[in-house]
Amino acid sequence: MIRSELVQKLCRDFPDLTQREVESVVGAVFDSITDQLAKGGRVELRGFGAFSTRKRDARIGRNPRTGESVDVDAKRVPYFKPGKEMRERLNLQEVTAD
Question: In what order do the strands lie in the sheet with 49-56?
């Protein structure tokens, strides 16, 4: 599902809201998560999962086109850990299929 599909689904589920209002709410939620992660924080949505960042050390990479060695700086990358309820719902289908 992409962002526009999410907005469309929420518009169908909440017909009293305009598409512009739904887009604003979705944008505000995503911006809040991004802002918190940029500050080095963590965002936990109970039953869904937790967003955080992890540190990647500097390393020597390789340019795939030329094969030349390239220095890659240290950086933080986003990380998502699914919650217990989500893992159970995802694996519920496998159990019922047996």
Answer: 43-45, 49-56, 75-82
Q: Is the dihedral of CA 47, 51, 57, 58 positive or negative?
A: positive
Structure tokens at 93: 């289908």
Cα 35-36-42 angle, rounded to 5 deg: 150
Beta strands in 35-98 (DSSP E): 43-45, 49-56, 59-62, 69-72, 75-82
Domain boundaries in the chain?
1-39, 41-98
Fold observed for domain 41-98: HU Protein; Chain A (4.10.520)
pLDDT at residue 29 in the model: 96
Q: What pLDDT, on a 0 to 100 scale, did the predictor assign at position 6?
A: 96
Q: What's the mean pLDDT in 42-57?
A: 96
**Which of 90, 91, 84 shows the shortest CA–CA distance to 44?**
84
The whole-number pLDDT of residue 95 equals 59
